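User: Sequence recovery, please. Input:
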């Protein structure tokens, strides 16, 4: 199983490598030459079509490309509109909760022995720790970024940390 925090993945790749990558091939390269990739779960909150039609169209095109990836499932959260100091902004909701729950519930259901978590969000450390300690699973933390941006807490609790570097990503970059 591969669990991808979509927004975190996008910005980590963009900020670290100034590019976009082929997600399907990224996951294949990540797990190596094994046939046991059960599923890729991609967690994201869709943009509201009325609030931002241009971004909505781009995101829908991206979702269409994701749907072409074998064994990839998109799990949607939501964006909530907030206002602060007269300015509107959006907050992603339910995405992280869905991902954390799936790590633990999939471990409990024995859907995997080994999983990969692609996110730098240390809030997932509790779910990772539970899957490892309660269900004897191996959870690999896929760290994308600098030593400043990767998660100390995920490094601490994960079975293994895999740091993505230029060499790993060079043939996965989309033009």
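Assistant: Recovered sequence (175 residues):
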């Amino acid at each position: 199983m591969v669990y991808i925090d979509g927004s975190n993945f996008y910005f980590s790749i963009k900020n670290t490598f100034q590019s976009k990558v082929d997600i399907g091939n990224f996951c294949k390269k990540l797990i190596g030459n094994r046939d046991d990739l059960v599923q890729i779960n991609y967690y994201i909150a869709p943009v509201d079509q009325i609030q931002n039609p241009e971004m909505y169209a781009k995101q829908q095109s991206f979702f269409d490309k994701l749907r072409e990836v074998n064994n990839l499932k998109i799990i949607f959260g939501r964006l909530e509109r907030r206002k602060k100091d007269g300015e509107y902004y959006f907050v992603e909701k339910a995405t992280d909760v869905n991902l954390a729950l799936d790590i633990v519930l999939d471990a409990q259901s024995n859907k995997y022995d080994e999983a990969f978590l692609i996110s730098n969000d240390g809030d997932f450390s509790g779910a990772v720790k539970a899957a490892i300690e309660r269900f004897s699973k191996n959870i690999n933390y896929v760290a994308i970024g600098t030593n400043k941006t990767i998660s100390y807490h995920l490094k601490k609790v994960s079975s293994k940390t895999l740091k993505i570097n230029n060499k790993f990503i060079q043939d996965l970059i989309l033009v």
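The chain has a mean pLDDT of 93.
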